[in-house]
């Protein structure tokens, strides 16, 4: 739906993230835009991902991984890793693929709203844990052995990525690790550091500078959120939400479901305006008070993207036919088109937000 691969070489977003120091930009490219682009590209196949990293971004491709999910019995979890340079890198990025539009079993993962208690960590979305590599859905200790001893050709993504990170932090001792993703991939990136903590992977955690993702579904309960905020204290824990994205508002945050978001959020009310919030409006989607505005913004985004944006901002903002079809779904279910990586990327490229150190960390 969005063929764009190039990064903006000059962006006012650079000033939004002052506490990142030397890694806030890479060859003049804004870090926030890079993370959203990396999460969008994760939906592509391995060849396209490698092409984007090496030829368009001029960075170092480490690997693309199709990983086993024991419960769906498929290689259903994907991630890739890249560094900003091949030698003495300052940044290691791990990007998880989100819910693929064509993959029915990804939706099974998303709507498995049950919890698994992880002890002092709290309760975590069990479908996401299964996608990362859970081995036992009844007991988290048995479910997360420190070392995987199963079939060599069926290694889950948690263990594959961890092994790569162990090697990379030795090869690049000055590098910082960032986890990112969109949709389900955003939730996987938000849970991953907790599993490193469970196994006391302090070398990797010490090199982790935080998580930065977009369009995230809620990964766990309030206790889990508090655990993650404490684990990432002094680092950053930031997610981006566009308008009335329906996925961000599930599983529900109410006394029955008890799912919560954690960390600060850059919330975009339009492609041109964002603000820092702790909680998006219309928390659980079905609040009737918001439906008039949801339909209004649906009409506005559809016709603006079709008729105005390509003229005002340039041909890179021209909509593809699949994108317009996807946008049209919003006339029936407003909030679905807001989940598109295209809109997230538009907001980051076009929007204006001022964020202080105190607001993010």
TrEMBL record:
Q: Name one Pfam family in it.
A: Lipase_3
Gene Ontology biological process terms in this record:
lipid metabolic process
Molecular function as annotated in GO:
triacylglycerol lipase activity
Residues in Fungal lipase-type domain copies = 93-253
This protein's name: Lipase
């Amino acid at each position: 739906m969005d063929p764009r691969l190039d990064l903006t070489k000059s962006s006012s977003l650079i000033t939004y993230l002052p506490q990142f120091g030397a890694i806030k930009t890479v060859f003049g490219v804004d870090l926030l835009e890079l993370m959203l682009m990396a999460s969008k590209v994760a939906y592509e196949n391995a060849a396209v991902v490698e092409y984007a990293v090496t030829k368009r971004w001029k960075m170092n491709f480490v690997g693309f991984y199709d990983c086993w999910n024991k419960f769906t019995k498929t290689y259903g979890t994907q991630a890739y890793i890249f560094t900003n340079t091949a030698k003495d890198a300052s940044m290691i990025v791990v990007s998880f693929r989100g819910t693929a539009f064509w993959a029915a079993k990804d939706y099974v993962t998303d709507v498995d709203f049950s919890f698994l208690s992880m002890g002092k960590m709290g309760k975590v979305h069990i479908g996401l844990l299964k996608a990362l590599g859970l081995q036992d859905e009844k007991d988290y200790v048995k479910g997360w052995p420190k070392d995987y001893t199963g079939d060599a050709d069926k290694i889950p993504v948690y263990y594959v990525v961890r092994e790569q990170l162990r090697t990379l932090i030795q090869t690049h001792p000055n590098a910082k690790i960032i986890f990112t993703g969109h949709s389900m991939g955003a939730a996987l990136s938000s849970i991953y550091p907790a599993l490193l903590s469970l196994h006391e992977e302090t070398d990797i955690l010490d090199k982790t500078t935080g998580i930065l993702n977009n369009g995230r579904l809620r990964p766990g309960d309030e206790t889990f959120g508090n655990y993650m905020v404490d684990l990432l204290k002094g680092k950053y824990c930031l997610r981006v939400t566009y308008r009335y994205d329906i996925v961000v508002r599930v599983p529900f945050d109410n006394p029955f479901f008890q799912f919560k978001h954690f960390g600060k959020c850059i919330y975009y009310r339009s492609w041109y305006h964002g603000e820092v919030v702790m909680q998006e409006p219309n928390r659980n989607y079905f609040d009737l008070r918001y439906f008039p505005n949801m339909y209004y913004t649906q009409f506005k985004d559809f016709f603006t993207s079709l008729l105005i944006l390509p003229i005002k901002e340039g041909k890179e903002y021209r909509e593809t036919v699949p994108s317009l079809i996807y946008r049209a779904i919003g006339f029936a279910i407003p909030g679905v088109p807001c989940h598109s990586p295209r809109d997230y990327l538009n907001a980051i490229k076009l929007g204006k937000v001022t964020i202080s150190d105190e607001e993010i960390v």
